[in-house]
Write a structure and sequence with these properties.
- This is Pyruvate dehydrogenase.
- One of its GO terms (molecular function) is thiamine pyrophosphate binding.
- Keywords: Pyruvate, Thiamine pyrophosphate.
- The protein is about 35% helix and about 15% strand.
- It is of the alpha/beta class.
- The chain folds into three domains: about 5-165, Rossmann fold, CATH 3.40.50; about 190-345, TPP-binding domain (Rossmann fold, 3-Layer(aba) Sandwich); about 360-575, Rossmann fold, CATH 3.40.50.970.
- Helix 14 (about 335-350) runs antiparallel to helix 24.
- It is globular and about 75 Å long.
């Protein structure tokens, strides 16, 4: 019986770690591993057209499942293409193992064909990045990489020369049990006692929530009720905290809406829950507002704002310990005032997409997003391109506890939506996956639309086609610059989809939109709806200061739609009805 090869051992360990797919593009140095995948039950090779897509797909799969996913690239240019998607996965805290295969081990350092040094190149976007030089080294390095990716929630990269992958496994090559799940992290007793005192002494408490509140919705609601706190959120916290939330005051930041900004500035104690919110200008600087941050990643504590208390712990465990300790507050005046401000703010902007918008040509993108929200399944996965699509998703896609919203929300890469949809759809072919793509982002990695067709993945791609890089135009406008280099000359994307063998429909009039989306959703395979949208539909933040918009003329605000909030207005009105009347 032939001895097991290193490549086979590598793949076996991936299977033991729960990896079901390896996304990538085949190539010489990678061939031993790909062949081992072919012969190993329980894992599939997913052939994409660009390695960047492989990394985005693996990152999305990891975010949907919460378990390890994997991607691979051949030596030199092949694995270099992984880097953008790996940056996104790492910054999204998605556990991903990347195999960066390497040139023959005897040629490393000698300027060989396609030589790069993956063990150096990927260090900034990974927790662990190492080169395997000998067969005896392999199992321990791979297992260490897996445990770093899972235990620290991010990327690990293993560089493996093709000749080493082809060698036999040595006798007694050490393997050990794998860690494939993370523990809960409870704060220290001293921090809990100090935080309890701060809450009990505060008259006005506001919670601001990020993606770290995943799985803690019930605990956040219970705590908010106990301390009568308004609850705002960052973009990555939206899907976890906004639904069934009678304390909701909206979102802060560049894409924000509602009264979240006011609630975070008019309180006397702001508690940041599981958020690495990056925008310093939107956080309070007044020392009268005390700030507490709770995060499972200690390196994130205090790096965005000054802190009066840093609490190391996951949100669910922290609130479980904290809520019974704090005194129940009875004064709702601050909460009720913020709820009213929130409802008033949404009332004031909702007209931006309701006033005769069904007849406007080009189609308003807000209208597209609102119709999409109404027609999508209750458990749909939305993948969202960076740029203006972030705005439309933030304001119109309604979370309900079952939907998932994935984007490049921290790394901010273009072209992420369709590749992430590939990874999301592979986790469950029966679940509706919708890619909200911009024309710029879609065209950047358009070749991997063929991956949808090749595997028959029923992803629905909705292209918001304004023939421009809309967010970049807004940035230029804000800086007082004329738009330049932002126009796209696009094909009929629906015709391209049909040429690829998929369903394709182009929509230019609002009255045809709902029917086209319904037909696409009914189609059993991949489908694309190319919607021609208004390039003048822009967005501005809810709070504007002169330094944020130097050069943004007042007259220009007439073309800026700083409103439109979808079904969030209904929820705000409902919450307001629950406010006690004197």
């Amino acid at each position: 019986m032939a001895k097991q090869k290193v490549a086979e051992q590598f793949v076996d360990i991936l299977v033991k770690a729960g990896v079901q797919r390896l996304y990538g593009v085949v190539g010489d140095s990678l061939n031993p591993v790909v062949d081992a995948v072919r012969r190993t039950p329980g894992i599939d090779w997913i052939q994409v057209r660009h390695e960047e897509t492989a990394a985005f797909a693996a990152g999305a799969e990891a975010q949907i499942t919460g378990t390890l996913a994997a991607c691979a690239g051949s030596c030199g240019p092949g694995n270099l293409h992984l880097i953008n998607g790996l940056y996104d996965a790492h910054r999204s805290m998605a556990p991903v193992l990347a195999l960066a295969s390497q040139i023959p081990s005897s040629e490393i350092g000698l300027g060989y064909f396609q030589e790069t040094h993956p063990d150096q190149l990927f260090r900034e976007c990974s927790h662990y990045c190492e080169l395997i030089s000998t067969p005896r080294q392999m199992p321990r390095v791979l297992q260490t990489a897996i445990q770093n990716a899972v235990g620290r929630s991010g990327v690990s990269v293993v560089s493996l020369p093709g000749d080493v992958a082809s060698q036999p496994v040595p006798e007694r090559a050490g393997e050990h049990a794998l860690v494939t799940s993370r523990p809960a992290v409870r704060p220290g007793e001293a921090e809990l006692e100090k935080l309890t005192r701060m809450i009990d002494e505060a008259k006005r408490v506001t919670l601001f929530c990020g993606s770290g509140t995943a799985g803690a919705h019930a605990q956040v609601m219970q705590f908010a009720e106990r301390v009568k706190s308004p609850v705002g959120h960052a973009l990555r916290g939206k899907q976890w905290i906004q639904y069934d939330n009678p304390y909701d005051v909206g979102m802060s930041g560049l894409l924000g809406y509602g009264a979240a900004y006011e609630a975070t500035h008019e309180c006397d104690l702001l508690i940041l829950l599981g958020t690495d919110f990056p925008y310093y200008d939107f956080l309070p600087h007044d020392e009268d507002v005390k700030i507490v941050q709770v995060d499972v990643r200690p390196e994130r504590l205090g790096r965005r704002s000054r802190l009066d208390l840093a609490v190391w712990g996951d949100v669910r465990e922290t609130l479980t310990c904290l809520t019974p300790r704090v005194k129940a507050k009875t004064d709702r005046r601050f909460l009720d005032r913020m709820l009213k401000k929130h409802a008033d703010a949404l009332e004031g902007v909702v007209k931006a997409y309701t006033r005769k918008v069904e007849k406007r040509v080009p189609i308003h993108p807000e209208y597209v997003a609102s119709v999409l929200d109404e027609l999508a399944d209750d458990d749909a996965v939305f993948t969202v391109d960076t740029g203006m699509n972030n705005v439309w998703a933030a304001r119109y896609i309604t979370p309900n506890g079952r939907r998932s919203i994935i984007g490049s929300f921290t790394h901010g890469s273009m072209a992420n939506a369709m590749p992430q949809a590939i990874g999301a759809q592979f986790t469950d072919r029966g679940r509706q996956v919708i890619a909200m793509s911009g024309d710029g982002g879609f065209s950047m990695l358009m070749g991997d639309f063929l991956t949808l067709v090749q595997y028959g993945l029923p992803v629905k791609v909705v292209v918001f086609n304004n023939s421009s890089l809309g967010m970049v135009e807004l940035e230029m406008l804000v800086d007082g610059l004329p738009s330049f280099g932002t126009a796209n000359k696009n094909p009929d994307f629906a015709a391209v989809a049909r040429a690829c063998g998929a369903y394709g429909m182009r929509v230019e009039k609002p009255k045809h939109l709902a029917g086209a989306l319904k037909d696409a959703f009914k189609h059993k395979g991949p489908a694309l709806v190319d919607v021609v949208t208004d390039p003048n539909a822009l967005s501005i933040p809810p709070k504007i200061r002169a330094e944020m918009v130097s050069g943004f003329a007042l007259s220009a605000s007439k073309i800026v739609l700083d409103g439109g909030v979808g079904r969030m207005l209904q929820m705000a009105r409902s919450n307001l009805r629950n406010v006690p009347r004197p």
